[in-house]
Write a sequence for this structure.
């Protein structure tokens, strides 16, 4: 599974961009809001989801791991395709969407194309069930929480173990940018 891509943006078009990474150009579908965060020729860093269709493979990109998690939860709902899930997950921040979903506010989905009142009710109902099932924090969920940190995700995708990632990231100041955290972590892990 391709869950993280970093590379140069070599093409930007409405709804997608092509990121060159390791000599390969990845077509990554993104929301218009996400697309505004990137410049042609600049380096991009996105969390991604490979959507396997009957006749296609499409890669969807997100600025944060939280957006990716929301997208995945939406894709698990019957009748919600990748385009609709992308539109919903980019309405506002994942935390605000979660808050509105938990409050049962169907109006948050009013501006999403193809979502009528009936479908909005279904999405709110199913998504609120998924979001509320997180429950109180246990040791297992604390271990899972490290995976929501963007630097931790990048390190895990490079093959490092959770315990090593936790230990190394605890040595790095939290005010550092993701890229700097990963770079410092790799240096520390390389010395061990």
């Amino acid at each position: 599974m391709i869950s993280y891509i970093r590379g140069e943006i070599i093409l930007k078009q409405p709804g997608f961009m092509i990121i060159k990474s390791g000599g390969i150009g990845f077509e990554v579908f993104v929301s218009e809001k996400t697309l505004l965060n990137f410049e042609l020729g600049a380096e991009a860093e996105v969390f991604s989801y490979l959507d396997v269709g009957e006749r296609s493979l499409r890669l969807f990109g997100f600025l944060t791991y939280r957006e990716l998690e929301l997208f995945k939860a939406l894709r698990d709902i019957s009748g919600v395709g990748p385009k609709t899930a992308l539109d919903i997950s980019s309405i506002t921040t994942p935390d605000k969407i979660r808050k509105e979903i938990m409050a049962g506010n169907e109006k948050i989905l009013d501006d999403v194309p193809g979502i009528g009142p009936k479908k909005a009710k279904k999405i709110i109902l199913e998504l609120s069930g998924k979001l509320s099932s997180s429950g109180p924090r246990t040791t297992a969920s604390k271990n899972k929480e490290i995976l929501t940190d963007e630097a931790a995700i990048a390190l895990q995708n490079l093959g490092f173990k959770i315990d090593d990632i936790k230990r190394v990231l605890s040595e790095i100041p939290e005010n550092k940018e993701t890229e700097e955290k990963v770079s410092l972590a790799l240096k520390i892990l390389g010395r061990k």
User: Anything to note?
Assistant: The beta strands are 4-13, 16-21, 24-29, 43-52, 57-62. The first helix runs from residue 32 to 35. The two ends are 28 Å apart (CA to CA).
